[in-house]
Amino acid sequence: MKPSPGALALKYLFILLACAVVLYPLLWMVTMAFKPYPEWTTVAGLTWLPQDPTWQNFEFIFRGHAEGLVVSLDRTITGPLIASLVTSICGTALAVVSGTLASYAVVRFGLAQSLPLSVLQLRLFPPLAVMIPVMVMWAFIGAVDTWWGLSLIYGIVTLPFAFWLMKTFFEEVPVEIEDAARVSGCSYWRVFYRITLPIVKPGLATCALFVFILNWSDYLLALMLTQKEWVTLPVYMATLTSAMGGQMYGMKAALGVIAAIPPVVFGLMIQKHLVRGLTFGALKQ
Amino acid sequence: MPAERFQYNNTMSEGRAIEGIKALQAAGNAPAKISMLLTDGAIGQITNPFPEGAPSAKEVWERETGIEIDIIGAPAEDIFKKVMQDVTTGGGTFDIYTGPWNSTGDLVSSGGAVNCSDFVAKYQPDWGAPERGTTTPENEKLLYTYAGDYYSFSLDGDYQTWFYLKGLYEDPRVQEAFLTETGAELKTPDTWEEVDRISKFFTGKDFGNGPMYGNGNLMSPFWGLATFYARFASMDFPNFFFFNEDGSPNLNSELGLQCAEEHVRSFEWSPPDALTFTWAEAYATMWNLQIPHTAIYTNLVKFGDGFNPDGTPKSKATGMIGSHLPVGRRFGDQINRRSVLYYSITAWISSQSKHPEAVYLFLQWLSSTRTYTWMAGNPGGYFDPFQQANFKEPLVAQSYQPYSMETIPATIARSVPSINFAGQTALDNALDEELQAAITGQKSVRDAMDAAQGKWEKIIKRQARNGIVEAIQASRATWPTLVDPA
Amino acid sequence: MTDQAHTGATRTIRPQGYWVGVARDGQKMGFWFILPTFLLLLFIVIFPFFMQLYLSVTWWTPLEGIPWYSAWEVFSWFDNYLTLATDPRLWGALWRTALIMIVAVPAQFFLGMALAYLFIDQFPGRKLFYSILLTPMMIVPAVVGLMFFLLFQGTGPVNAHLGLPADFSWLTDVNRAMISVIIADIWQWTPLMFLILLAGMLGVPSDQLLAARLLGGSNWQNFVKIILPRMKTVIIIALVLRTVECFKIFDLIYIMTKGGPGVQTETISVFLYKQTFGDLEWSYVAAIGLTILIVLSVIAAKGLAYMARKQG
């Protein structure tokens, strides 16, 4: 059944409108990243495109100083960028691996039936409600401002997400397939590794993407558990202030553009799995 | 060192610090690196070479001692949160904390700062030196000590100082319009009443630079408290204290309410978005000639008046700015002009530092009158002049303009301290929230002040066993009594 | 395939320990599989719980000048809990958090649903539009906060493009501040809703859709009668997920308004942050944290039990 031309036009209109709403703030950020200081604030008039486009903002955050700027930075974006990548990837690995294993055991072997609830509770409450003991603990074990300390908390707070997502995927894998493999003599580990995991691969990829985005997005935990060496991008962004101009919007926007790259690249890499991965878990009912 | 007058020898404060470091190094008691948590807008003042062709302060120190200075930036409004985080978790990441002078009490009570009295006795810094150091001995006490001991290193002079668009005030068109409208002559104000009259007049007027807003004072959360405290202090003669002798707050007293009402009303004349302003956005309004006057941090002039090295004017307001004494209220034939010391970047030594003595020596070197004078002129950051030697220095005068060299010391002499004893953060936050509620119209001024009074009473009750009432009483003694003839 | 057959099938592939007792080495592997998660849970739960419990019955704050483990010196019984029960600021923050959830989550849901519905079929440009619509969830919330902070300045682009005057403030207006924050949240998280719901819709077997269309129902009827019922689980997952995350909202608000003007956009997380690092009321925060923990745990347990009952 073909939709009427009117309906089709309406559909495109709605979609285009949605895209415009999505792009409006993004474009403002991207163009801001190329605007020189006098154009940051809109007091003097508003322009979409930079009147005097410049790489100054990018140059500044990567080199700590830039041609024609009085201010300079003691710390460039390199450290925070590495910190963000390392801790997000390690945290994601921790969450996805332990979440996958545990959810498989719960689904297949019927072990620890109370685990889903406990894990869910972990995700429910705001981190700030337990931040004080966590900070004390992290300080006690020497994990403050270390890559592993931040990765550990990232792994813990995103574990519930990985666990529950993977749980829905495993529930979809027909037990008959695994049974057949068992009968033909495969060990439990082989069944899991060779049969089940490949089946849930799209789900696993989707899960990893979501967990990565969650970790990459974090501001609060890094704000409280890092001080200097392992400060992440969002925390670093907040420090881009100068005595003279206050907030360095151009530099912050440049940083925002850079910060968007890893998730987008990751997303494109697994794009073919994305909807399929989600569909997989969503199929039941 | 760039110039003769910044040179020091062993008989001077800086020289003693360097000698001390050498002795510590010989004894194997000095670190290879000192980490400093610093408000991000000040970093350039330590790391940027100044003046043209000379090294930076950091380079000089590192060359003389071989001890590396590792600076970590944090936003000014949030830096004390970062400090408390390090103190309470025992992180030990920093040797030096910096933050608002007001927070000294909180930091000392939490055990986060090193008591430096012994070091001060041993190395004799020139903070209070006659002719060179603080303007008065009381001022030295206020800036460097807490409860009788040395804890803090003053690296700033945030005495809210009045600046105005002199060029505009002197414009005959403006004068005539003002005379017609208000029946009075336009001149720099002596009282808050006159300030408000000028603010009201300029709001909506266009003298060729677009529509203006009359009130340039900060009204935003955190920063706007300074404006309120300055107005509050002059409500009575010679001073109107925040607290009574017995420690009870004065917020919802008759005069307190009147002050809050005036403060809230002045928001009518503020620029749009004034409630999201930090100092920097407020500066920009004056540089763009959008406001006629403001009481604010003195580096407004450093960044916005005068010329860049390439000869271009720093802002549209270059050459138009002037400065005047703080305003007060008329009592008979006298005026109690009052300003306030608020924020003012201050350094403390972390009690977790492994080398407090070496760290102390670095801070003594940095805050002594020669190094500090040299640094104060540097346009790379917002450390402001406050020592007598600063005001005699041509480089400082060049940065801060000659007209400020008299008004700033005069303002210091008439400034009251904002709250600086343990519990300060909670007290300031409580008042701030209620003031914001009143400004945005969520509450009536009376309700807001009643609520703020209640919160303050509660905080004082809770902090009573930590000696807050004694601290309040001690603080009253540091208020100026100087008044001017009307 | 009828509904019955479908649920029946679900039951056989969820064996609730189908292999239990089949072999001991299976159990053993299961044990090792669970161990990391179990250890992480223990690690993060035990100490914080007891420390919260301990601090919450004292008056201790970092200003006390004694270490936290000596907090018994300022024992206060249940003072913090009494304060909590009558603290208008806490309840205000809870109410505002609820308000954001009540407005933002349904808005995200309906927008996401509408978009997902438009994306079921193939059409020219689908892939491009799809990629564009997903970008907001890839942007760091702190950056989103900054973007909307700039957009909503009185002299900023939103006012200019809508033809509003510069003194039409968003972030500092008592009511509009909340609206701005909610708009930003909707902007960022509608894409996630869209993605999950689209996945759910695509999961509805196409033969069922085709059959329904052949029977001649209108699109709307097909949607309500065929698609919606089959998406029940997905819808619940999407709604629960967003509600839970929305409850914790912090970055966006802290960067856009810091909870202001006054406390007008102060949510529970922003409130806790200010109490922890601003006012340094640690024992009070401990009491609040523990209370939230208990209340949410009860809700979660009840919710899961309810879902299990419905499915079993």
Short description:
Chain A is an all-alpha fold. Chain A has helices at residues 5-32, 56-63, 78-109, 115-124, 131-140, 147-172, 175-183, 188-199, 201-217, 220-225, 233-238, 249-269, 271-282, and strands at 241-242, 246-247.
Tell me what the structure shows.
The complex is a heterotrimer of chains A (285), B (486) and C (312). Chain A has helices at 5-32, 56-63, 78-109, 115-124, 131-140, 147-172, 175-183, 188-199, 201-217, 220-225, 233-238, 249-269, 271-282, and strands at residues 241-242, 246-247. Chain A is mainly α and 285 residues long. Chain A has a single domain, classed as Orthogonal Bundle (MetI-like fold). Chain A has a two-stranded antiparallel sheet with strand order 1-2. In chain A, helix 3 packs parallel to helix 6 (147-172), helix 6 runs antiparallel to helix 9 and helix 9 (201-217) crosses helix 13. Chain A is globular. Chain A starts with a helix and ends with a helix. The relative contact order of chain A is 0.13. The model of chain A is unreliable at 281-285 (pLDDT under 50). Chain B has 486 residues and is of the alpha+beta class. Chain B has a domain at 4-157 and 343-403: D-Maltodextrin-Binding Protein, domain 2. Chain B has a three-stranded antiparallel beta sheet with strand order 3-13-6. In chain B, strands 8-7-9 form a three-stranded antiparallel beta sheet. In chain B, strands 10-11-15 form a three-stranded antiparallel beta sheet, with no helix packed on it. In chain B, a hairpin with a 2-residue loop joins strand 4 (145-146) and strand 5 (149-150). The longest helix of chain B is centred in the last third of the chain and has 19 residues, at 445-463. Chain B is globular and about 75 Å long. The N and C termini of chain B lie far apart (46 Å). The model of chain B has no long low-confidence stretch (mean pLDDT 93). With 312 residues, chain C is mostly helical. In chain C, 71% of the residues lie in helices and 0% in strands. Chain C has 14 helices and no strands. Chain C has helices at 3-13, 24-56, 79-85, 88-118, 126-134, 141-151, 157-162, 176-203, 206-214, 219-230, 232-247, 251-256, 268-278, 282-311. Chain C is globular, with a radius of gyration of 25 Å. The model of chain C is unreliable at 1-16 (pLDDT under 50). Classes of the chains: A mainly alpha (285), B alpha+beta (486), C mainly alpha (312). At the A-C interface, helix 1, helix 3, helix 4, helix 5 and helix 6 of A face helix 1, helix 2, helix 4, helix 5 and helix 6 of C.
